[in-house]
Design brief:
The structure is a single chain. The protein has seven helices and no strands. It has 119 residues and is mainly α. It has one domain. Helix 1 runs antiparallel to helix 7 and helix 3 crosses helix 5. The longest helix has 24 residues. The protein starts with a helix and ends in an 8-residue tail after the last helix. The relative contact order is 0.19.
């Protein structure tokens, strides 16, 4: 039985919030030096990318309301399949420059009762 589209938005919100919590108080150097933190953050980005990929299949209109969703899914694929070439500075840059916007967008979509067919 397929999940409701908004449940994928909740998955994105949860994973993005975890990244924010995990990285609070860190800077580039501390992030790069902490293998466990990098692994945890990368895993949450994998979840975000997979949730958006599933959302696109289930509700393409809703998924299209998330800027850069295809790039986020592509980043997930890179983390999964190109793990050996991941640059932690790029991951950190995404945490700092892209994640806050994604969080705002998802919160807005979840607050919008007309945001998907199941609302």
């Amino acid at each position: 039985m397929p999940r409701e589209p908004r449940k994928y938005l909740h998955d994105v919100l949860t994973a993005a919030s975890r990244i924010t919590t995990y990285t609070d108080g860190y800077d580039t150097e501390r992030f790069e030096a902490n293998d466990q933190l990098r692994s945890a953050v990368e895993r949450q980005f994998e979840i975000i990318g997979e949730a958006l990929a599933q959302l696109k299949c289930l509700d393409p209109t809703l998924a299209a309301r998330i800027p850069e969703a295809p790039r986020i899914v592509a980043f997930r694929n890179l983390l999964i399949h190109g793990y050996a070439s991941i640059d932690s500075r790029i991951v950190w840059d995404i945490v700092i420059t892209k994640l806050p916007s994604l969080l705002r967008t998802v919160v807005e979509l979840l607050a919008d009762p007309g945001g998907s067919a199941d609302a």
